[in-house]
Amino acid sequence: MSNPGASDTTPIHSIAQLVDVLAQGCKPRDAWRIGTEHEKFGFIRPEAIAGDNAPQAGGTAYATPPYAPQGIETLLRNLHKSEPDDWTSVLDEGNIIGLKGQGEAAGAAISLEPAGQFELSGAPLRTLHDTAEELSNHFDSVRPLARKLGLGFAPLGFHPTATRAAQPWMPKTRYGIMRDYMPKVGTMGLDMMQRTCTVQVNLDFGSEQDMVRKMQVSMALQPVATALFANSPFVEGKPNNFLSNRARVWTDTDNARSGMPPCVFEKDFGFERYVEWALDVPMYFIMREGRMRNVAGRSFRAWMNGERQDGLEDVTPTLGDFEDHLTTAFPDVRLKQFLEMRGADAGSPEMMMALPALWTGLLYDDAALEAAWELVRARPWEDYVKLRELVPMMGLDTPWGEGTVRDLAAHMLSISMDGLQNRDMVDEQSQTSEWVYLAPLTALAAGAPTQAEHWLERYYGPWMGDASRIFLESEI
């Protein structure tokens, strides 16, 4: 979830201005970059409970750490102190809620999800090798500081043991607004906020036509990514018959702003059609004089048209307001001045790298993109919408045509492999190509268990029904 605060104060007079906001994302091919984001659950390590640095009085092993004291706030401050040339603090009403990269970390950010899920929003990087180095450096920075506080981090799609009531709330104004609004528009919005983690990749486009093709291909195939990256089979310590409970949660979070918008596959889809869809996504907030104003449920379109709405009577909509508003739409692929792939559970470091590798191979090579489009267009759009409903439970075994989603994933991976080979980005030190990062997915397509299936095997086997064992075994 992006931090708000876009500063363009230009008043909005026309739809064309909003279209131009998105069109400004068009970049020449040599400027295309890869931006990887990943989230992870914090937990209190067992040895910290009896120690002097116990994060909270009465804390229990594997519980989610508080914001303060000796919790997430302290970790953010210690990260800032340890690398002062790389980070500057991000504050919300005096509370540190993240770090913004500068110097060698320029373009990156560290932020907090509602229950303290720790997120690295990576810098836009040229190659997947650069992404791998960034992830490794992040883990190396966070791990020792977290250990000193008695904390660990587990990258999983849904919190395996905590109840919603047991999860803390981070002091971000935006999350307070969403916390009040979510129960009005869906049954699982608070679960999405407090008990889910994802890994995403942000990718560029060269033109409106290029954006449309990439958006349609990636939107249709997002359910396949959900199946490949399924990593959330437990709820409150027990299996709940879903391989990706995170994806299940998204089926009833707030359907006015999420899912697979039908407009994406309409013949006239483009920047303007996405703008029209976004204008009808209910608002959350606006920023004025450095403070967030709660306007949840209001209509941006009506505001633009000058209609009176509570909380908006004294203000004129600006381009900065619209840019902030775009961050409150949560489709499976989100369009801003780049495309965000949003269908995967958080997972192991190897899977964190496999996600950007998969989509980079499919979307950044012309021949691969065309092959992916031919794969997608062989079936009607409605089939992919239905697939989204089924894969949270059935994963790669979900029926697809005469076979399963595993077969569709194998086709997808073959195309991505070709795309990465055509890119021919070789790491100078290891002399390896980018396609090596697809290895975990290649194994899955060949029949290996998904992360969720692996954890279920552990649960019914050596863990003897103790799902809390997942924390130390998945810890980064």
From TrEMBL:
Could you confirm whether the keyword Transcription appears in this record? Answer: no
* Single GO MF annotation: ATP binding
One of the Pfam families matching this protein, by short name: GCS2
User: Which pathway does the database say it acts in?
Assistant: Sulfur metabolism; glutathione biosynthesis; glutathione from L-cysteine and L-glutamate: step 1/2
| Record keywords, A-Z | ATP-binding, Disulfide bond, Glutathione biosynthesis, Ligase, Nucleotide-binding, Transit peptide
What biological-process GO terms show up in the record?
A: glutathione biosynthetic process
Taxonomically, the superkingdom here is: Bacteria
What is the annotated quaternary arrangement, including any partners?
Homodimer or monomer when oxidized or reduced, respectively.
What protein family is recorded?
Answer: Belongs to the glutamate--cysteine ligase type 2 family. EgtA subfamily.
Report the protein's function.
Answer: Catalyzes the synthesis of gamma-glutamylcysteine (gamma-GC).
Instruction: Report the PANTHER family cross-referenced here.
Output: GLUTAMATE--CYSTEINE LIGASE, CHLOROPLASTIC
| Protein name per its UniProtKB record | Glutamate--cysteine ligase
Species per Swiss-Prot/TrEMBL record = Acetobacter okinawensis
